[in-house]
Amino acid sequence: MLHRVTLIPGDGIGPEVVRAAKSCIEATGVDIRWDEVLAGQTALEKYGQLLPAETLDSIRQNKVALKGPIITPVGGGFRSVNVSLRQTLDLYVCLRPAKSYSTVKTLYKNIDLVIVRENTEDLYAGIEFEVGLPQTKKIIATIEKLTQKMILPDSGISIKPISKKASERIVRFAFEYATKFRRKKITAVHKANIMKFTDGLFLNIAREVSRNYPQIIFEDRIVDNMAMQLVQKPWDYDILVLPNLYGDIISDLCAGLVGGLGVMPGGNLGDQIGVFEAVHGAAPKYKGRNIVNPTAMILSGVLMLRYINEDKAAKKLEDAVIEVLKEGRSLTYDLKPSRDDPTAVGTQEMAEAIISKLK
Ligand code: NAD
């Protein structure tokens, strides 16, 4: 079956890792027609826009995209392209499996966690008031009037909305995912003891939704305790469902457990659309040097193949990645025992080693 997929090379190391992932995906034999479009710095340079309408139209039409990391210029009032993309397309799920392929150099073995992060609200909603502006003074005055609590006048303010709707659908997604992939337990992560009306709401909704899935164990953890427990005994956990900010932080912690950002894939999913990307960013200092690890992007391709129901190709590609990791020869510097290991190979060479296992 022919699939049409939007391809966004991205910025910094994006084009290198996306090229590597694209060649690996094609080598599985799936029939994909790529529709290449721009977003981020490259789009700003070419079209004067960070997220051109053409890019959004392509994703809306194809319903699936493979995306490299994107740089949003700091200052100049630009809104994060990634946040805009997720909000505009209502990609409310950020799915990040953290699996240790026992061959990757790590302190931990046999980890198999899935992070389900809410993607559209919380402190990432982008509702912020800069210190000193008239509207900031107004919001401070309103809050003081309504709550009888003092806020220092030289404060900046960020708003944390957490809704019933967004909490319900993210928790439901986590339970549906657990059911589909026969996972056993879901842990809701929060700080409901302090933020009763936002995280408390999230927790209450999670408890309510969990009653519809009696076959799956449900529990909750306060986020600081969760961070400690993931370092002490990550094997006790299975699927974690979290509001946006904690999800962002805890997924990097989990990336650290399984070998670093170079190996952690991800997908941003809505009801109709899936945009797949590595957890890592654009690592600009490595741009164009052909040295970074393509694994996270290739494994994002594996998630994408499963999403378009190409399960056989997905398994083939994942197995090829595992084989190359197991052999331990054609690995980028970050997977070698020391960072200056002279036997480390380049991005493209690691991808070629993976492709050779697919033949
Ligand atoms: P980063 O993930 O780009 O880099 C942090 C460090 O992680 C790098 O210096 C490098 O040592 C390591 N690293 C990252 N990817 C690697 C890979 N594939 N192989 C080996 N090592 C790797 O994070 P950052 O420095 O905070 O962000 C750089 C830029 O990327 C910023 O502009 C940021 O906004 C953007 N960013 C984009 C996304 C996205 O598009 N989804 C995500 C995170 C950051």
Strand and helix layout:
Elements: E1 2-8, H1 14-27, E2 31-36, H2 41-47, H3 53-62, E3 64-67, H4 81-88, E4 93-99, E5 112-118, E6 128-129, H5 134-147, E7 157-158, H6 164-180, E8 185-190, H7 199-210, E9 217-222, H8 223-232, E10 239-242, H9 244-257, E11 267-269, E12 274-276, H10 295-307, H11 311-327, H12 347-358
Parallel strand pairs: 1-2, 1-3, 3-12, 5-10, 8-9, 8-10
Antiparallel strand pairs: 4-5, 4-11, 6-7, 11-12
Bound molecules: nicotinamide-adenine-dinucleotide (NAD).
Nicotinamide-adenine-dinucleotide (NAD) is lined by residues 17, 69-72, 82, 261-262, 277, 280-283, 292-293, 296, 334.
Per CATH, which architecture of the largest domain?
3-Layer(aba) Sandwich
What top-tier CATH class of the largest domain fits best?
Alpha Beta
Ligands bound, unique: nicotinamide-adenine-dinucleotide
Taking pLDDT < 50 over at least 5 consecutive residues as the criterion, the unreliable ranges are none
The portion of residues forming beta strands comes to 15-25%
Series of H and E elements? EHEHHEHEEEHEHEHEHEHEEHHH
Number of domains: 3
Global structural class: alpha/beta
Q: Count the strands?
A: 12
Give the distance, in angstroms, between the N- and C-terminal Cα atoms.
20 Å
Instruction: Please give the order of strands in the largest beta sheet.
Output: 2-1-3-12-11-4-5-10-8-9
Mean pLDDT: 95
Shape annotation:
globular
Largest sheet: 10 strands, mixed
Radius of gyration: 21 Å
CATH fold-type name of the largest domain: Isopropylmalate Dehydrogenase
Put simply, the count of helices is 12
